[in-house]
Specification:
By secondary structure, the protein is an all-alpha fold. It is 83% helix and 0% strand. Pfam families: TPR_10 (PF13374), TPR_12 (PF13424).
Length: 386
């Protein structure tokens, strides 16, 4: 039962996996008791599945319970306990609770260095997750040295062409891209992709991830034709390897719609975005954060086409979901809030634009560091409304 559920989860069939994992947990609780190591493994698996489904509040509740019981029965330094610590931090990060996630990652990293050693794969994984969190916060000053430390240690441990090393390099490139350092980021993305093609093959899921990252690099640097071409290749590869409704496939479809919009191919962009939204609603549910993000992408396209009424409805729908999960101050929520506020300003609906702008500013000051470029952009926008 558990094996089947995990296989369904790997394929992206979260709805099919959930009842099996709930049944597995119930059976083990009755047969083994709530604190047995196998029961806690089932609890952890269900919490991870709920995270994937976007049910972050319940996922957090179950991960906290699992962590508490593992600390009690296995001790604070046991690998399973540290795994629960990491999983809880991942949920908090997804919810935008960066202040809650950071001490968990730091505790886990410090403990793993002491127990397993600085170069142990689990220690390096925790270091990577801490750096990812700081990058999400826009705290690039603290994130970059951690990424560089990570890549150096991965190269020593695994070699320069190992997939684990390439994953670390890819995350460093993501940081450089967020900082606007396109000259430094581009060659890293290209090396990661070329090496994965050679080592893992062009159709491997991790190679397709590297291709998608390369496409995002082109998109962010303004090369929309190259971004479009690579997103199309990535989408075709993921449809073949993962299926048309897998979350990674839908993410690529959403990115392709955004690239088509920037290339001013609005009719095709709208078609792709509508197909993506429909598939996301069908497979993930209407309130899943990825579905809400797809709704905001379609809203951007309709705004560009002059369909402001349609755009407003989609922005409001997207924000209603995103405020619930991952939360009102999460960077994704703030990005959609900004786009909606810009639309209201363009419509000369200044009271509404100001209301949205003040919500945006309060959220940015709570969750983004002072040197975060997005926070600076939001502050300038709100100032323009005065």
């Amino acid at each position: 039962m558990e094996k089947t559920a995990l296989q369904l989860q790997e394929k992206g069939d979260f709805a099919g996996a959930e009842p099996l994992l709930r049944q597995c947990l119930a059976v083990r609780e009755r047969a083994l008791g709530p604190e047995h190591i196998d029961t806690l493994a089932a609890l952890n698996n269900l919490a991870n599945l709920l995270h994937d489904r976007g049910q972050l509040d319940e996922a957090e509740k179950l991960h906290r319970r699992c962590l508490e019981l593992r600390e009690k029965t296995l001790g604070p330094d046991h690998p399973h306990t540290l795994g629960s610590l990491n999983n809880l931090a991942l949920v908090l990060r997804a919810k935008g609770d960066f202040a809650g996630a950071e001490p968990l990652y730091r505790r886990g990293w410090t403990t793993m260095q002491r127990v397993s050693g600085e170069g142990h794969p689990d220690t390096l994984s925790m270091l990577n997750n801490l750096a990812n969190l700081l990058s999400d916060m826009g705290d690039y000053t603290r994130a970059e040295p951690l990424y560089r430390q990570l890549v150096d240690q991965l190269q020593v441990k695994f070699g320069p062409d190992d997939p684990t090393t390439l994953a670390g390099e890819g995350n460093l490139a993501n940081l450089l891209l967020r900082k606007g350092n396109y000259i430094a980021a581009g060659p890293v993305y290209q090396r990661c992709y070329d090496t994965r093609v050679r080592v893992q093959g062009a159709e491997h899921p991790e190679t397709l991830l590297a291709l998608g990252n390369l496409a995002t690099y082109y998109f962010e640097s303004g090369n929309y034709s190259e971004a479009e071409a690579d997103y199309r290749r990535c989408l075709a590869g993921r449809q073949k390897a993962l299926g048309p409704d897998h979350p990674d496939t839908l993410n690529t479809m959403d990115n392709l719609a955004g690239a088509l919009r920037k290339a001013n191919k609005l009719p095709e962009a709208e078609t792709v975005a509508r197909n993506c939204l429909a598939a996301s609603e069908r497979t993930l549910g209407a309130q899943h954060p990825a579905t809400c993000n797809s709704a905001s992408t379609l809203a951007d396209i309709l705004r560009d086409k002059g369909d402001t009424e349609g755009a407003v409805a989609l922005y409001e729908r997207a924000l209603a979901g995103l405020r619930e999960s991952p939360g009102a101050t999460h960077p994704t929520t703030l990005s959609v809030l900004y786009e909606y506020a810009v639309l209201r300003k363009d419509q000369r609906r200044l009271p509404e634009a100001r209301r949205l702008g003040y919500e945006l500013l309060a959220g940015a000051r709570r969750s983004l560091s002072k040197d975060n470029p997005s926070r600076s952009k939001y502050e300038r926008f709100v100032e323009s409304l005065r």
